[in-house]
From TrEMBL:
<dbReference type="InterPro" id="IPR050362">
    <property type="entry name" value="Cation-dep_OMT"/>
</dbReference>
<dbReference type="GO" id="GO:0008171">
    <property type="term" value="F:O-methyltransferase activity"/>
</dbReference>
<comment type="function">
    <text>Catalyzes the methylation of 5-hydroxyuridine (ho5U) to form 5-methoxyuridine (mo5U) at position 34 in tRNAs.</text>
</comment>
<feature type="binding site">
    <location>
        <position position="83"/>
    </location>
    <ligand>
        <name>S-adenosyl-L-methionine</name>
    </ligand>
</feature>
<feature type="binding site">
    <location>
        <position position="155"/>
    </location>
    <ligand>
        <name>Mg(2+)</name>
    </ligand>
</feature>
<keyword id="KW-0949">S-adenosyl-L-methionine</keyword>
<feature type="binding site">
    <location>
        <position position="129"/>
    </location>
    <ligand>
        <name>Mg(2+)</name>
    </ligand>
</feature>
<feature type="binding site">
    <location>
        <begin position="111"/>
        <end position="112"/>
    </location>
    <ligand>
        <name>S-adenosyl-L-methionine</name>
    </ligand>
</feature>
<keyword id="KW-0460">Magnesium</keyword>
<keyword id="KW-0819">tRNA processing</keyword>
<keyword id="KW-0489">Methyltransferase</keyword>
<keyword id="KW-0479">Metal-binding</keyword>
<dbReference type="InterPro" id="IPR043675">
    <property type="entry name" value="TrmR_methyltr"/>
</dbReference>
<keyword id="KW-0808">Transferase</keyword>
<comment type="similarity">
    <text>Belongs to the class I-like SAM-binding methyltransferase superfamily. Cation-dependent O-methyltransferase family.</text>
</comment>
<feature type="binding site">
    <location>
        <position position="35"/>
    </location>
    <ligand>
        <name>S-adenosyl-L-methionine</name>
    </ligand>
</feature>
<feature type="binding site">
    <location>
        <position position="156"/>
    </location>
    <ligand>
        <name>Mg(2+)</name>
    </ligand>
</feature>
Length: 214
């Protein structure tokens, strides 16, 4: 049983944030990838616990998860969102304005490798939801930006369970799965991180960078 099914037995609301129901439905209708509801619930909880001031999202699409980040984080927090596709970025900006979050969210259009290279802030919360085969290669850039005590959450790390399977996959899928396995191996064994993998959604990897004195 998924976390969503368990939550629905005890919750009156079927939506993580009812006010964003229209954005969620539009994304699903147009086949725009968005965070699963049980993964969104876990993301929201992590935000409430951490209370981050500087948030980085890598992979924004139409901005559904960005809106969740904005809603669940402190009013004083600032979000840097990165999106490669110009049409998706345009729609995301429309959604941010619609819900009056355009001042809280700074959306940067471009390839994540290029954008991350020039970011200067230390972020205390990073949500990674870009191309799955790139997680491993983005890791070193992310570590340059993740503050001590900061939280890194990567979505879809089990990719339909294929990361846990040994059977042969199509070449493109096989490469992506191999790279996801590399990402999980590096975060689980990195001396500066405490990490765990949970099955919410399509698998989420949650890492915390150790404080300097730990």
């Amino acid at each position: 049983m998924k976390l969503t099914d368990i939550n629905s037995k005890f919750s009156e609301s079927k939506y993580i944030e009812p006010k964003f129901k229209k954005v969620e439905n539009e994304c699903r209708k147009n086949h725009i990838p968005i965070i699963d509801r049980d993964a969104a619930a876990l993301l929201k909880l992590q935000l409430k616990l951490k209370q981050p001031q500087r948030i980085l999202e890598i992979g924004t699409a139409h901005g559904f998860s960005t809106l969740l980040l904005a809603e669940a984080s402190p009013e004083t927090s600032k979000i840097t969102a990165v999106e490669l596709d110009s049409q998706r970025a345009l729609k995301a900006r429309e959604n941010f304005a619609k819900y009056n979050y355009q001042k809280k969210i700074d959306l940067k259009l471009g390839d994540a490798f290029d954008v991350l290279m020039y970011l200067k802030n230390d972020y205390d919360f990073i949500f990674l939801d870009a191309a799955k085969g790139q997680y491993f290669y983005l890791f070193e850039y992310i570590m340059e930006l993740l503050a001590p005590g900061g939280i890194l959450i990567a979505d879809n790390v089990l990719y339909k369970g294929m990361v846990l399977e040994k059977k042969e996959q199509r070449p493109k899928i096989r490469t992506m799965v191999k790279n996801l396995k590399k990402y999980l191996k590096i975060i689980m064994n990195h001396p500066e991180l405490d990490s765990t993998i949970v099955t919410a959604g399509d698998g989420m990897a949650i890492s915390r960078r150790k404080d300097i004195n730990e």
